DNA sequence: AGCGTTATTGGTCGCTTGGCCAATGGCCTA
DNA sequence: TAGGCCATTGGCCAAGCGACCAATAACGCT
């Protein structure tokens, strides 16, 4: 028995897959709350009350943890963004409402974070492109349904999908603006762009979005 | 006389204002070429072949140098972006061509860089907002002229200005994508959005832009 | 020409980072 | 129950960072 108790960190040993998932979740949490560059061996270890070396054990190259954490966070968020049922119009409106919701702000910051960071770390750029593609698949599915039903008269569904995401990312770029000044031109940009890109009569989608806010 | 020549760094003393400007220019260059986070005392000192301490002498707080360097780079670039004469339509087309030109890519990266970094450093956010306002003033001047001349039928010139910049920033967000896939929906987004936001008949601006590319 | 101001140097300090490694001890299996 | 595998620890290292400071030398002034 020790002379002094110290902070007897009773060493707990977990199944590798479980520990790895735990580390990944923690890193994803840091990415969302504090940013990708704050994912450090020590930061993750501190949150888990574990030695820094353990993180290195599961992720010998720290960069890999960052990339995987981003992918994990993006995947989790996508499930929420697109979880909707109803007509294509309703699903699109729901998507826009959620993407602009205050609760999505952390995720918006993370996307911006990844877009910039891929300048220095090509691996993040690869993961980013992959996540973008997954998002496009989800939105394209909605758009195609709307084209089939006649709700979205666009002649080029894929182009509309691309443009809606450009609009989302454009507005999202201001997410870190302290005094992001409130102006209707900002607020309705994504909705109006979607209407325009899909060839819908003006006001229809805006009303569907307003009903769900 | 020294026993060995060593790298006899003959100490040159310059007028404070000149040295300060030199440091600022160098930092702005690093910001454009390598990113704002690469502006370090040592990196700037190396480029200028001076001691790191000298940079601290002129910028006791390194953060201030970063903020001022961003402002300097943005200001310099703005002069090029908006340097045009002719009809409002011609000036707008010229602006779009330049903003999407390959030579503006470094600046686009810098804006993205600053948007993300303002998450951690409020001072950058303040400088960013100020630069955005200056850009809006420039573009608004063109738009107002076009509204007066009847070329831009929009009822809300300011909203159009805001939306054009959202489009620019939206497309600019992909600047670090390694394999930014080429698609007409990307290429013409800013042009088409400007047409739409300004209430112009489709195709007019696109042609004006095409003529200048 | 001599002197004072201060631009400039070059080094140190404390801090944080990722990577590395020997030692420890928990859990599973034979 | 004994033994071995390996998850886990904790400390060390080198590199890079901003900040700080005493010493030095270039320049302007009288």
Q: How many beta-strand segments of chain A?
A: 0
Biggest sheet overview of chain A: none
Rg from alpha-carbon coordinates of chain A = 21 Å
Measured distance between first and last alpha carbons of chain A? 61 Å
- How much helical structure, as a percent, in the residues of chain A? 55-70%
**Averaged pLDDT of chain A:** 94
| Beta-strand content of chain A | under 5%
- Give the SSE string of chain A: HHHHHHHHHHH
Q: Biggest interface between protein chains, with counts per chain? A: A-B, 41 and 41 residues
**Unreliable runs of chain A:** 1-8
Judging from the principal axes of the Cα atoms, what is the shape of chain A? elongated
Put the structure in a nutshell:
Two copies of one chain form a homodimer. By secondary structure, chain A is mainly α. Helices cover 69% and strands 0% of the residues of chain A.
Provide the fold topology:
2 copies of one chain form a homodimer.
Chain A lengths: L15 H19 L6 H8 L3 H7 L3 H20 L6 H13 L4 H13 L4 H28 L7 H16 L11 H4 L1 H10 L5 H9 L1
Helix pairs in contact in A: 1-2, 1-4, 2-3, 4-6, 4-7, 5-7, 5-11, 7-8, 8-10, 10-11
The structure holds a DNA duplex (30 and 30 nucleotides).
């Amino acid at each position: 028995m020790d002379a002094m108790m110290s902070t007897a960190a009773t060493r707990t040993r977990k199944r590798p897959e479980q520990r790895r998932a735990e580390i990944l979740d923690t890193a994803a949490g840091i990415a969302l709350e504090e940013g990708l560059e704050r994912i450090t061996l020590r930061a993750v270890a501190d949150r888990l009350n574990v030695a820094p070396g353990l993180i290195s054990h599961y992720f010998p190259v720290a960069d890999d943890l960052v990339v995987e954490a981003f992918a994990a966070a993006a995947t989790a968020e996508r499930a929420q963004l697109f979880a909707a049922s109803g007509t294509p119009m309703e699903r699109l409106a729901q998507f826009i409402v959620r993407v602009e919701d205050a609760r999505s702000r952390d995720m918006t910051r993370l996307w911006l974070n990844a877009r910039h960071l891929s300048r220095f770390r090509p691996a993040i750029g690869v993961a980013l492109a992959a996540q973008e593609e997954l998002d496009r698949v989800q939105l394209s599915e909605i758009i195609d349904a709307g084209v089939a039903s006649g709700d979205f008269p666009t002649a080029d569904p894929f182009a509309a999908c691309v443009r809606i995401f450009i609009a989302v990312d454009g507005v999202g770029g201001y997410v870190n603006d302290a005094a992001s000044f409130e102006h209707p031109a900002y607020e309705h940009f994504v909705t109006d762009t979607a209407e325009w890109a899909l060839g819908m009569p003006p006001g229809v989608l805006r009303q569907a979005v307003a009903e769900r806010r």
